[in-house]
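Crash report, auto-generated. Payload:
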Amino acid sequence: MREHEDAFQQKGAKLVAIGLGDVGYARQFREDSKIDFPLLIDDKREAYKAMGLGSANLLHLFRKDNAAARKRAKAAGHRQVKLGKDPFQLGGSFVFAPGNKDLFVHVSETFGDNADPKQLLKAVQGSSPGASLPSVSA
Amino acid sequence: MADTYSSKLAGITLTDPDGKPVRLGSLWAAGPAVIVFLRHYG
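Recovered output after restart:
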């Protein structure tokens, strides 16, 4: 996602990541990944629960879409360094606008089920005055 | 107002790795924000 930070900023959008884990873990991640955008800590899982982000299970490891996602991540040079506080926690991506408007919603259904950054950028572009909003996916 | 994802999140306050509190709703109060929930760090 960090590769797209500039594109989001050019469209006037902030990019913010939320993760589980403690302060030490988050600091280490920020240092290792060299991200410049804000990283927030949800060690009580308050925000994850509010968004309805669920958990996977061991069976997800054998899903075809998970294998494909792992292959894509490996090809892109990504590697998982640590399992984290909860290796089964699933993520999600959202684009929100003033007035608590949801411009884009993607709730991950399994490991590696991530929103395409192009979709996020499209949602941001649609937030400009006078633009028609893109459809919301779930 | 409809119960949007953003409205559910707006009142929650989290901290950054330096301990600074951030009310999530403030992130998109003035403009759009892309919020990514990580599955794990690293």
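Post-recovery validation: The longest strand of chain B covers residues 33-37.
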